Amino acid sequence: MSMIDYVTTATTKYIEQMPKAQRKKYGQFFTSKETAVFMAELFDLKSVSGPVSILDPGAGSGILSTALIERMQRVASITKIELVCYESDANILELLRSNLDWVCDHATKKIEYKIISDNYILSQVADYNHMLWESPNPPKFDCVIGNPPYMKIPKDAPEALAMPDVCYGAPNLYFLFASMSLFNLKDAGEMVYIIPRSWTSGAYFKKFRQKFLDEGALEHIHLFVSRDKVFEKESVLQETIIIKAKRTAVKPPNVTITTTQSNADFSQKTVFHVPYDTVVSGEDKYVYLATNAEEVEVLLATYALVENLGATLPDTLPSIGLKMKTGLTVDFRNREALRDHAEANAVPLFYSQHIKSGKVEFPIGKESEYLVTEQNGLLQKNSNYLFVKRFTAKEEHRRLQCGVYLARKHPEYDEISTQNKINFICGQHELSECVVYGLYVLFNSTPYDCYYRILNGSTQVNSTEINSMPVPPMNMIEAMGKALIRSKDMSEASCDNILRSFI
Is this structure's pTM higher than 0.85? Predict the structure, then answer.
């Protein structure tokens, strides 16, 4: 029996007897054999010789460590493997130790391992922050391989306070682990992680991206087309990616991007090489995951489009006096203010369900369509807006789904409200109908939807990301809106034709 088969079998038995709630408490989602082998193969071992050091933070049952050790068995120049595993869950320590003992007994090379049961983050606070009592020579590793815990923590959690240089808001443990792992690497050392895609964009991850991509370089990213088949025994519905990064300030010319449907078909992966500056772009260091030549063209064409429309530097919504905001009313927190029918002092409350075929329809007979409140924070002027659904899935035809809201359709109201599952675009001054229709042309077009799909991997249409997207100057947006009004055709194809006509 191979090393990885032995450890996989033992892990499966553990999963079957350990309650899912217990594993979820620690953010444990175990890596499959196929994924572990693929991750191990990503390391460049051609020039490695002598003793090699491996770090496995959040080691679990040792599947990833075992896959990498098994790979290193085939490299003649490697003489010794030194493995350090962090694992703080007492329930799995016995299994981890048993698995590693078996691996050592059946290895062809000398292996020394150490299990550290301390908290991976907190145990290195002094070294990471260069405090007075830091270790003079903290251990550094040739290779780091990891499947960190996926778990949100409070912004005042000890782990968050330990890494203030990468934290903003309520962080997730997985990117704290990733940042610490980069810190643990030797210069030119490599790390391979399987993590959620959410870090590639969004304001909460900005500080992490900037530090991680300043001190390291992405070399390979693997995408899974299917969200529910990465951790097949765990029922995890999250877009997950595999990244390989090197600790270096020198960026490679290209990033290799591979894709598979699931974790069971790595032999059928697609392979695509994308210029590094196309993948990692902008002040916020967004990571654009283009998977083919057409998507790269979309990225480049979006900026080219804006330039062709008259902008020397790409404008954004804020730079032309506009902004996307999140809807104001969290309905379950304001149940006493909700009404099913119109009454005195009630105002319309708009939901994503009101966005239909490019327009905003109201009322539609939905419950809680009205709001009675004097809280200014829940009310906004009855003005012209572009409404955009805030939650859409990658499996849907479009990620950007929007509708034109015109104040004149509801003259009886001075104010309205928006539920927080929609976004709306407004301006410093009231938007003309032509501008709203012009914004609709942009956000209902194929290029803009594709651009956003490449940028964003979560189910949330994030206002921060939208506000950073390139847009044409205001006069061009207005002209596009006039063209759409004349056409009376709100379809995606119509928006595409109008957009092309302005290039």
Answer: no
The alpha carbon torsion through 139, 151, 423, 377 (nearest 10 deg) reads -100
Q: Which residue has the tokens 């040739």?
A: 142
Please tell me the class of the 318-501 domain.
Answer: alpha beta
Would you call the peptide bond into 363 cis, given omega within 30 degrees of 0 as the criterion?
yes
- DSSP helix/strand/coil, 220: strand
- Cα 483 to Cα 118, 277, 435, 478: the distances in Å are 63, 35, 11, 9
How far is 432 from 85, CA to CA, in rounded Å? 60
Rounded to an integer, what distance in angstroms lies between the CA atom of residue 416 and that of residue 470?
Answer: 29
CA distances from 168 to 161, 172, 204, 284, 369 (A): 10, 10, 5, 14, 35
Residue 18, both tokens: 């350990």
**CATH 3.40.50.150, applies to 3-118+125-291:** yes
Name the token pair of 444.
């209902």
The domain limits of the chain are 3-118+125-291, 318-501
* Kind and range of the H or E run holding 127: helix 125-128
Which one-letter DSSP state was computed for residue 32?
P
pLDDT digit string (tens) for 103-153?
A: 999 999 999 999 999 999 999 999 999 887 778 889 999 999 999 998 999
List the one residue out of 228, 197, 284 whose CA is nearest residue 458.
Answer: 197
Residue 443's nearest CA partner among 322, 331, 336 is 322
Q: How many residues does the chain have?
A: 503
Spatial distance between the Cα atoms of 295 and 300, rounded to a whole number of angstroms: 9
Residues of the chain with pLDDT under 70: 19-29, 226-238, 303-313, 503
C-alpha distances (whole Å) from 287 to each of 166, 202, 209, 240, 249 are 16, 10, 9, 14, 17
